[in-house]
Amino acid sequence: MSATTIRILEELMRSGGFRSGEELSSVLGSTRSAVWKHIRLLRQDGYDIEAVTGRGYRLTATPGYPDAIETGRFLQTSVLGQRIEHHRSVMSTNAQARKLAREGAPEGLVVTADAQTGGRGRMQRVWHSPPGVNLYFSIVLRPPVPPRVVPQIPLLAAAALHTALASVAGGVELRIKWPNDLLAGGRKLCGILCEMESEADMTHVVIVGIGVNVNLRALPPEIETVATSLLLETGREFSRPELLASILNAFEPLYRRWLEVQDLSPVFDYLEEYSWLRGKQVEVDQYGRRLKGVAAGISPTGELLLDMPDGSQTMVSSGETHLIPDNERT
Q1: Where does the chain have alpha helices with state H?
Q2: Which band of pLDDT confidence, cut at 50, 70 and 90, is reported for residue 44?
Q3: Is residue 76 marked as binding?
Q4: Is there a binding annotation on residue 33?
Q5: Annotation-wise, does 93 bind a ligand?
Q6: Of the residues 7, 62, 91, 118, which has the fewest C-beta atoms closer than 10 A?
Q7: 92 labeled part of a ligand binding site
Q8: Under CATH, to which class is 3-61 assigned?
């Protein structure tokens, strides 16, 4: 979308009523025929714009893209989301954000997409990414911290996600599953994928990729028993731009505090209170090595604390966690 098209959209949003072609052409320093061309482009992009002879143009509905214009109306941040690059479709927002970061993109840049053709989660698993219904976005961070503390960021993001979603989905049981998921009623609602570029004791960039199932009405058979969406849980649709802004608004102050302390103390009690695993028998798959025990919580630095059958306690820094079925518990 060109700068002129964006300006016309902003003028229509700001007025809330009719703006004549003459007014718009005067503001933009262009002809009325040029204004009409941009109106036509906006309509093609999904914006409903009413045209009435003698009155002008009025914006009646937007497509709800999580872009800079629509999300910016709800943002209360100073860094995160102050620049948003939106795509109708990308292979993955993480890949695009990583590319932009290598080109010098500043901290706080957010890449969003209406659809992903190669969306993925941890362990290279496919992330179901249909168009127009969910949130797919990646945040560029440049934290001046050693790489060893970066694995705490997914839990920080999970706390922000829980805070934002709990405020709009009252009554839904939201729980944080170590290390990177948010569950609703025991089924996956959000996933977080963090990727880092670093050397020695220096972190160059961290890409925080987040997928939220928002207005999804149906799931593929292979995941319908393990995943869900806000719509399926509440029976109503949500504004994706407003939801994105709420998440960024919740994340920024937590991130700032984390930069100061470089541990999970800003969210530790929150993570413990809303833990999905705490007190349950779990199995952790560490790339072929399997550990079984009772999840006792997390450490201040983000490791999963596992009470082992022999009475010892071990700290798990990474891995996939699964609840042990009732018939297999000891």
Answers
A1: 3-15, 21-28, 32-44, 68-72, 93-102, 153-168, 230-234, 240-261, 268-273
A2: confident
A3: no
A4: no
A5: yes
A6: 118
A7: yes
A8: mainly alpha
